Amino acid sequence: MTRGVAIYEGEFCSGDSAEWMYALRARASAAYIAMLHGLADDALARGDYQTAARYALRVVEADRGHEGAVRLAMRAFVEMGSRSAAIKEYEALRRWLRLNLATEPSALTKSLRENIVQA
Predict the structure, then answer these.
(1) Are the C-beta atoms of 109 and 67 separated by less than 8 Å?
(2) Which residues of 19-43 are buried (b: 16+ CB within 10 A; e: fewer)?
(3) In this structure, what DSSP letter does residue 79 have?
(4) What's the pLDDT tens digit per position in 3-45?
């Protein structure tokens, strides 16, 4: 997975507007995000919280509304002793979801935030 992430250079043929490329671009982007998410999961499981946060935040850079990645980043920040950074990630997600999708974070994400605040 690290090799796949390393060779990804952004949107496939970004200067080309041929319709047949849209699906290919979407698949490449989804694969990139899935690899980053998997690397973040693995790092979190190993207790490498800095790496987990780094990969999770790269997912968030690629897809601001990716709640799974935000939760991973939040968990990593908490494990590193930075509850405030975890809450800031939650708040950034909440603002983005409201502004762009007129919705709120999922119950799972809200629950994680509440657990962090109450800890």
Answers:
(1) yes
(2) eeeeeeeeebbeebbebbbebbbeb
(3) H
(4) 655 555 556 556 667 676 678 778 888 888 999 999 999 999 9
**DSSP code of residue 17:** -
Cα angle value 57/43/90 (rounded, 5°):
35
Amino acid at 86: A
pTM greater than 0.90 (yes/no): no
Query: Residue 9, CB half-sphere, CA atoms under 13 Å: how many?
Result: 4
Domain ranges for the chain: 2-118
What CATH code is assigned to 2-118? Answer: 1.25.40.10
Question: What percent of the chain lies above the pLDDT cut of 70?
Answer: 83
